[in-house]
């Protein structure tokens, strides 16, 4: 092992030691720490902005594109947003210590299932420096120590932010080791971090599909694989077509670059001739490119104007576009729609538009995804929309948490058993 | 890929297809299938016993030890136990479809979190043929398809049992593909099975620590790693010593070969001179060998009679003995006990004996394990004792289920969102 690797493992080990104290820290102390972080962020605004400007100078020199630069950039308002986010986390209920069930056994033993932290969470993330504050505060509130590994491009900003967090929690009486920030930007450290299942309980990757997949495939500890959504909306024979049009357009265009945006429209054959031309026109207005299967193509050939339409290739199904592109396919029945989604969906967000209660309930029951929608937009798969107060990730795992993950979803439980000398017969 | 591997993957894929229908199968149908299995087991008793006798002949020829032969052996009573186990699972509540939470959002959307099956569960197990029935019935009841890979030694018995299960569920209207049994005993198939994360959602190893570790390290899908317990009992300065003695002896000797049996006794220094000699005598009566740290040794040196006592080597701490052996260590304080458990425990079952409420609560809160006990025996970490009705495994994972796993613990959830045309702003 290299010296650097030893250092990273030492950091994770220090986090593990601190996690034991953090797990038993009362809500009041954790909330004071979160408020202290918010105050310190605002007090150190200039320092943060100076570091961010240096990161931006380097990023421009390295030729990063406009989108990346925009995501990296902090200003007075974004700094205030970070402070407000920390205050918001302080205002949420403490999930730790919640008694999930309690019962007395025949033996007289009392059984209690209690919510506890996971321990140490590792987070690998890219670009946006606010993730440093978001994740550190979510982990603190949920009693988890954290090892943060941010992207090279924001290293100076993140270093300042992490130092603010560590100083603030120390003032509040939480060991500063509970938050670890990896200062080296050596890429080899990512792989090494993924092997530290002796000290890290859960990995959360936040970034591109490549990053998420890399973590999913290489992490020896459990990892949240999420953020990749191949999202379908099925327009049933019994759909209200006005609703269907508004829902599909919203799901595609309201924010096309995110995981819960629509990728594929499945249209029942009996309403395709009516629906598809209207869709093509609406997509045209919104600059959405349509990739049509051969049956849809034959319907759409006839219409003038509207969206750019090209014949779909096979890989246009099962693809997350993250852009103003949607594939469309005509299906003969809800069964064909269900089969298509079972084959091509990523278990993220799937929707049906139908006024037929039986079809709706069948779709909601039979589609295997974290969140299944009826008569609304897949864009609602979101922690804030679900009222979770904060979002760590959107999980497509089936074990542990599924769908939007808030504070409770980064906790575990333990059983406490209280007896009076009972022994087993 | 070899032909055999293709076949196994085909089996798992068939299970995945069947799992979609099984997930939507009502409780009544599943229970009929379970009752049909019980009836068929009893009707085919002779056939089962003949196959088992052939397995036993081969096993004796291969020189398997008495313990293995005993675990493999079926007789009329054990066959009846299998049938009864299937009937018991039929009598339990169906976990699937349970609404875990429901709320209306400001947008008017209704949000429902519903319990669903995981999908396809892979199980690798050894020796006891009743595991075939136990696991198949637990999976059916929880709506999961299953791929069963039993040990070579029971291949003929397991093949007959699996055929009974498949025929019975088919009669009840469940696709026979929902239960897959791997007939080849080629060991290479285990490794290949662990790579099929495209079709298997969860792996459950049931068997030796070696098997559990192999699955934990090699499975590409999530795996339940459990069954390995390094279990401590800490005798506090405020312990009722009679209780402490009874609890420690029970935890060690009631069934020494299982995962929740005691491995290490930690004794507070202030009561060590009183407690340890009594323990040595009781352990002597029960043929338990004591491996004592140097401080305990100096206390125990003085006493005559009692257990065989040898100086503990460093690897006697952190070891699961699975035999009539226990290590013992004197600690200066509850803090030292907590540190020892944090270092050497496996997160399975840990106990304190103390009349001091503050010490008890501190121990229950600060020890990081699936089940933490106060004033009772670690032997109570068990699905039946917890009232779960049935047990899949005892998990030492921190994600998903922790501690004894019953039906609910092999399920997931999904969110169902019902709208009336809402779009996101």
How does this model look, in words?
Two copies of one chain form a homodimer. With 425 residues, chain A is an alpha/beta fold. The first copy, chain A, has two domains: 238 residues, Aldehyde Dehydrogenase, Chain A, domain 1 (3-Layer(aba) Sandwich); 155 residues, Aldehyde Dehydrogenase, Chain A, domain 2, CATH 3.40.309. Helix content of chain A is 43%, strand content 21%. In chain A, the strands form four sheets. A seven-stranded parallel β-sheet of chain A has the order 10-9-11-8-7-12-13. In chain A, strands 5-4-3-6 form a four-stranded parallel β-sheet. In chain A, helix 10 links the parallel strand 7 and strand 8. Chain A is globular and about 70 Å long. The mean pLDDT of chain A is 94. Chains A and B meet through helix 10, helix 14, strand 13 and strand 16 of A and helix 10, helix 14, strand 13 and strand 16 of B. Strand 13 of chain A pairs parallel with strand 16 of chain B, so a sheet runs across the interface.
* CATH class membership of the largest domain in chain A: Alpha Beta
Distance between the termini of chain A: 50 Å
**Overall mean pLDDT score of chain A?**
94
For the largest beta-sheet of chain A, the strand count, sense and barrel status come to:
7 strands, parallel
CATH topology of the largest domain in chain A: Aldehyde Dehydrogenase, Chain A, domain 1
Number of helices of chain A: 14
> CATH H-level name of the largest domain in chain A... which superfamily?
Aldehyde Dehydrogenase, Chain A, domain 1
């Amino acid at each position: 092992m290299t010296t650097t690797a030893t250092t990273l493992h030492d950091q994770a080990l220090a986090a593990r030691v601190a996690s034991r104290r953090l797990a038993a820290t009362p809500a009041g102390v954790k909330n004071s720490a979160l408020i202290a972080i918010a105050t310190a962020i605002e007090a150190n605004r200039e320092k943060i902005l100076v570091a961010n400007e240096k990161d931006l100078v380097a990023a421009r020199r390295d030729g990063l594109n406009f989108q990346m630069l925009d995501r990296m950039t902090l200003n007075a308002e974004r700094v205030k947003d970070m402070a407000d986010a920390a205050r918001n986390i302080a205002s949420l209920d403490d999930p730790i210590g919640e008694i999930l069930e309690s019962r007395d056994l025949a033996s007289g033993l009392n059984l209690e299932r209690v919510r506890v932290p996971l321990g140490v969470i590792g987070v690998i993330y890219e670009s946006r420096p606010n993730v440093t504050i978001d994740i550190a505060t979510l982990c603190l509130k949920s009693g988890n120590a954290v090892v943060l590994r941010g992207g090279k491009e924001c290293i100076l900003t993140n270093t300042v932010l992490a130092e603010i967090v560590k100083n603030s929690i120390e003032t509040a009486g939480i060991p500063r080791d509970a938050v670890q920030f990896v200062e080296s930007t050596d890429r080899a450290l990512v792989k090494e971090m993924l092997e530290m299942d002796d000290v890290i309980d859960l990995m959360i990757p936040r970034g591109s599909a490549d990053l998420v997949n890399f973590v999913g495939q290489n992490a020896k500890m459990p990892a949240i694989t999420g953020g990749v959504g191949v999202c379908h909306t099925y327009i049933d024979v019994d759909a209200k077509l006005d609703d269907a049009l508004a829902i599909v357009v919203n799901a595609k265009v309201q924010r096309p670059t995110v995981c819960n945006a629509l990728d594929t429209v499945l249209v029942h054959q009996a309403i395709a001739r009516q629906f598809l031309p209207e869709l093509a026109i609406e997509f045209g207005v919104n600059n959405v490119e349509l990739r049509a299967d051969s049956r849809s193509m034959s319907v759409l050939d006839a219409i003038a104007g509207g969206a750019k339409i090209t014949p779909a290739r096979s890989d246009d199904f099962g693809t997350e576009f993250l852009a103003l592109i949607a594939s469309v396919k005509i299906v003969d029945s809800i069964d064909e729609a269900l089969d298509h989604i079972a084959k091509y969906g990523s278990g993220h967000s799937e929707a049906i538009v139908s006024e037929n209660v039986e079809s709706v309930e069948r779709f909601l029951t039979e589609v295997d995804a974290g969140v299944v929608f009826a008569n609304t937009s897949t864009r609602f798969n979101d922690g804030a929309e679900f009222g979770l107060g904060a979002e760590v990730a959107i999980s497509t795992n089936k074990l542990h948490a599924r769908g939007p993950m808030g504070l409770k979803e980064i906790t575990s439980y333990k059983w406490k058993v209280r007896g009076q000398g009972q022994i087993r017969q």
